[in-house]
Amino acid sequence: RNAGRVQLTTAPELAALVEHFLGLEAVTHLSRAALETLAIIAYQQPVTRPQVDSIRGVNSDAMMKSLLGKGLIQEAGRTDGPGRPILYTTTAEFLQHFGLSSIIELPPLAVPMDGDAEPAELLKG
Question: CA angle, 49 as apex, 3 and 62 as ends, to 5°?
Answer without folding.
Answer: 95
